[in-house]
Structure formats: structure tokens, C-alpha cells
Amino acid sequence: MIATLGLDTRVTLLITGLIFLAALLLGVWKYRGMRSSPDGAAHPYVDIAHRAALLYAFAGLLLAVFTELSAWPTAVNLAADLVVLAFFVGAIASYVLHGWRRDTTNQYRGDIPVALKLATVLLIVAEVGGFLVLFTGFLRAWQLG
């Protein structure tokens, strides 16, 4: 059955599965933080990394569905998926870094570095733009349907 899925969908599911596995492992780190903390809470960015990875894993499933149903060529769908998934992974990695370093509880508080502002704008454009490619491919396939 998996062989009937497009390469773009299979790659998307593979990466999504790895994100979900990371979410589960981040949950272990979060649990350890909760158990060892006097207030019973993990560092905020450990919690954010865990939750974001869980949500991004399920968002990846949506990407896979829209990819499989898209009328666009495999290369277009795969490029859109990889852009979105790369930014998902990058966001999770930045949360993990802040959780590991315990250097902030809100990276947007105070003076925001230009690099963070730029990264945030790129994340928005990449995630929304990448999904719009897949969604318009779905709409096109529906129209051709």
C-alpha cells in the first residue's frame, strides 16, 4: 500500500514520523524536568518544544494528505513540503536550544535581535507559502476532478 503513495507523500510522512518521535523523546525530557523541579514544571522552552513537536507532527500529516491529493508535479509538492517541514524542525530546534541553555522564558521579550525578527518573518512566509502551494494543488485537482 505504501508503494501507491507518491514519493513526495512518503518523504513527508518519513520526516513527520521523525518529528513525532522527537516529540515523544522531548516528552521524556519534559517529564524529567517536572519531576526534578521544586514547582513541578519543566523549563518553559522544554514544554514549548514538546508541544510544538507534537503539533507539528500532526500538521505534517495534513501536509501529507494535501500533497497526495495535489495536482502539482511531485517536485513542486516535495519542495513545498520540505520548506514547511524545515521550518517546523528549525522552530523545534530553537526551542530545544533555549530549554537546554535555560537562557530565557520568552525569546520575544525585550530587545529582539534582527536575526530573530528575520527568522520569524521567513518562518511565516515559508509555512504559509508552502502550504498554499499544496492547498492550491488540492483545489486544482478538485477542479479537474
Supply database-style keywords.
single chain; 145 residues; mainly alpha; Four Helix Bundle (Hemerythrin (Met), subunit A); 4 helices; transmembrane; Integral membrane protein; transmembrane helix; membrane
Overall form: globular
Domain module tally: 1
**What radius of gyration results from the CA coordinates?**
18 Å
Q: SSE order in H/E notation?
A: HHHH
CATH class descriptor: Mainly Alpha
Structural class of the helices, strands and pairings? mainly alpha
Q: How much is the average pLDDT?
A: 97
Low-pLDDT runs of 5+ residues are none
Work out the number of β strands.
Answer: 0
CATH architecture classification: Up-down Bundle
Strand-residue proportion: under 5%
- Helical content, roughly? over 70%
Described by strand count, sense and barrel closure, the largest sheet is:
none
Q: What distance lies between the first and last C-alpha atoms, to the nearest angstrom?
A: 23 Å
Quaternary assembly: single chain
CATH topology: Four Helix Bundle (Hemerythrin (Met), subunit A)
Please, how many helices? 4
